[in-house]
Amino acid sequence: MSELFDAVDALVASRSPLPPAEERKRLRVAHGLTLDEVAGALQVRRATVSGWESVKKPTEPRGPEREAYARLLRKLAELYPTPEEPAAPVPATFTGASDPAEARTPSTGQASEAVATPETENTQPSAPAPAAAAPVAAPRPARITRPTSSTSRRPGVKKAASAGTPAGGTDPRFENGPLAVVDVDDDRQVLAYCSGGLVLDVPAKSLPALIDWTLREAKLGQPKLVGPGKDADPLIVLTEAALERYGLPVTLTEEERLAGRLPEGHKVIKQLARAEWKLTKRGFGPWARIYRPATGSERACVQLCIPSWHALDIRHWGHAAQLPPAELARVLGVYASRVMTPRGSTAVTGLELMTALHPATRASEPDADGKRHSEHNPGSLGKDPVDPAPCEAPDGHPVLKDLPRFHMRGPGEKLFEEAYDWARPMTDAECTLRHLVGIDVNMAFAAGANGLNVGLGEATHVKAPAFDPKLPGSWLVDLSHVDLSRVKVGKEWVELDGSLLPSPFTPKGERPEGPAWYATPTVAYAQELGYEVRPIEAWVRYENGRYLDGWYNRLRDAYLATMADLGVDADLNPADFLAAMEDYKRRDPELAIVVSAIKATVKGGLGKLRERPRGEGWRPGEPWRALSRPTWRPDIRAAVISRTRINLHRKIVKHAAFTGQYPIAILSDCVVYAANGESPLDFLPYRDGKPLPGGFKLGINPGLVKHEGTQTVLWGEEVRDRFDAPELNLARYIKDGTVTDVDNGE
Asked: Which residues pair with residue 300 across a beta bridge?
């Protein structure tokens, strides 16, 4: 009989009554619970709980999760009865309300102290606190604004008695976090979804009013990252419903998309102008900045992000633009808290992060009258752009305007430090092996920037200089005599098969044929391999420093923290690390988006250091817009790429010297080896869990490697035969075996 009773109980539980989705969310927020906390308690995914609360398309829990969820909601309803309805006893089934006596303390029968206190007359009645003997945790901080009749008045705020840490940190100016996703619900109420599950009611009826509300009442923004810096402006993300509410198009026309902005005569732009708001030179596009000129130290600026106008590039942000508002706020909020509030694309944000960590100016010490003045901030790139050396300038730059038209610069005239794109045919011995295994360097370019000495000021031209490996610059030197068949590894000379190795001095791996321009790390590596270098001339930068260290540290910490949240810790042993990496994206697809965006911030930020003309009616020999930035520094980009390529080559040489194994293909930060097994552990020389010193090491830290993909040797031969290309770069396709022309660099 007990089995029958259990079956009956399970049947009843499978139909446990639940309140509407809106009420489910109200109860969770009232108790200060996040979606993550509820998901963790019920042992389901965060997105599952979000679906249960979706007003537009709610999903229904099933099985034991439904019974547990119903129990949670019943307990919360006892603590937070529906404000609009009179209190009533709770029957055996769910009603969403409870008897007021249920909220009295057992010892005295007196009503317990209210959890929240109103800040204005417009606040709805406060919810009662849980009884002292109630078997639930104390309420976590939660704030929900309520609408007011005037945008000039502060909306009512429910504020927990135990305030805890605000969403934006300890700074009360930004207690609601760095950003908000603004949406319109089914009742036409405008809501702002903030970090940490916080939801604010938005009273603004127009876009100018929304900007004003954001700056005056929303308490959004982010404190500056360093002392001389500036606080981050609040970011407002507009959903499609919000765009319609505020008179903006849901999508741009083809003409507007190509222009990257709305036409100047658009009615909303006129509204902003009448309210004395201004737009930056890039106008009202996917990432619009709306501001009034600063008065003293007070800034009045709001950044807008419009996903349906393709503000969130799918290559870097995945499906973020399709997420519900609360989920999108979480993704952008995690990115903002760990990197910085987005200022545009991941590339733009990567560059802005450099400046935020090294502002161009700082306040001076007080003068004789006690006044402080703006002065150069040591270690920064300053506020004025500097010209590149002629060898560092890309084709068409104004410093090259005197070159003959259609002149093609060769290695002796042009610095060409780029990532690897190299491959070779497999040897007969390699063809007898079964698999091709790709390994990929984590955050390779970030690791290349770490500890790198780069130029800060202008370059100085020097004839016949003595090479200094500590001096940043570009050097014209002949490295064709470096023979990879015999090189120094550490302090010992070793014999290698140089025909199976790429040259470290060219992106295609070809041996140089004469003098060429190289960045300092490349020339220093030639010395390290045991060969003499005699530069013919150089452009060096005597003012230098480790400008990118702080940038690297912040992006590294963001990456490691997010990967740890996904179950990939920095201290995992090799086998556990490989297992943890196999499905990390499926554990929390939203956090996986953040990982992708962080990696894109690294590559994009470095790419922006040598941004090329983007339309603008540009002609060769004329300046383009990016040249006006102090952060337009192709020499810094070249130095980072040089060091990244050299770091990889050093590991390859170390591996070859110890194991006799050579790479078959290299693409940027991915290396492919032939092996008898499918795992990197089948060819990486681990002993007692320890890697080869100075070689490849599995792990999540920047500079360590992960498994990129495995295919069969037969697959590799078939692909090369199909394209009649013995040196087709298999590293480009090793991840999933799909042969395309697309290279995402991962």
From this structure: 292
DSSP helix/strand/coil, 260: coil
> What does the block give as tokens for 101?
């006596």
CA 129 to chain centre: 39
Under 8 Å between Cβ of 745 and 603: yes
Q: CA 694 to CA 714: how far, in whole Å? A: 32
CA atoms of 546 and 703, how far apart (whole Å): 18
Which are the contacts of 178, defined by CB distance < 8 A and separation ≥ 6?
168, 195, 220, 221, 222, 232, 234, 235, 333, 336, 337, 341
Instruction: Determine how β-strand 473-478 pairs with β-strand 537-540.
Output: antiparallel
Other beta carbons within 10 Å of 350: 26
Identify the three-state secondary structure at position 745. Answer: coil
Residue 411 backbone zone (phi > 0: left; psi -120 to 50: alpha; other: beta): alpha
Q: Maximum Cα–Cα distance for the chain, whole Å?
A: 98
Backbone φ and ψ for 506, nearest 5 degrees, come out as: -135, 145
What is the DSSP track for 166-178? Answer: -TT-S-GGGTT-S
Residue 194 is which amino acid?
Answer: C
**Which residues, in sequence order, are CB contacts of 203 under 8 Å at separation 6+?**
147, 148, 149, 150, 151, 155, 190, 209, 213
* Residue 7 banded pLDDT, cuts 50, 70, 90: low
Q: Which of 341, 373, 335, 334 is nearest to 356 (CA)?
A: 341
Helix (H) or strand (E) segment spanning residue 354:
helix 346-357
Quote the pTM value.
Answer: 0.78
Q: What is the pLDDT of residues 550-597, one digit of tens each?
A: 999 999 999 999 999 999 999 999 999 999 999 999 999 999 999 999
Residue 6: which pLDDT band, with cuts at 50, 70 and 90?
A: low
- pLDDT the model gives residue 468: 97
590, 596, 599, 604: CA torsion to nearest 10: -120
Q: Distance between CA 594 and CA 587 in Å, rounded?
A: 13
46-53 helix and 21-30 helix, angle to the nearest 10 degrees: 120
> What's the burial of 514, exposed, middle or buried (CB within 10 Å: 0-12/13-18/19+)?
exposed
In the chain, the percentage of residues whose pLDDT exceeds 70 is 84
Say how far apart CA 573 and CA 566 lie, in whole Å: 16
What are the tokens at 503?
């040259």
User: What is the separation, in whole angstroms, between the first and last Cα of the chain?
Assistant: 59
Task: Give the separation between CA 133 and CA 109, rounded to whole angstroms.
Answer: 12
Q: Which two tokens stand for residue 630?
A: 């102090």
Q: Could you read off the pLDDT of 507-552 as tens digits, one per residue?
A: 999 999 999 999 999 999 999 999 999 999 999 999 999 999 999 9
> How many whole angstroms separate alpha carbon 235 and alpha carbon 388?
34
Per-residue pLDDT of 184-202, as tens digits, reads: 998 899 999 998 889 999 9
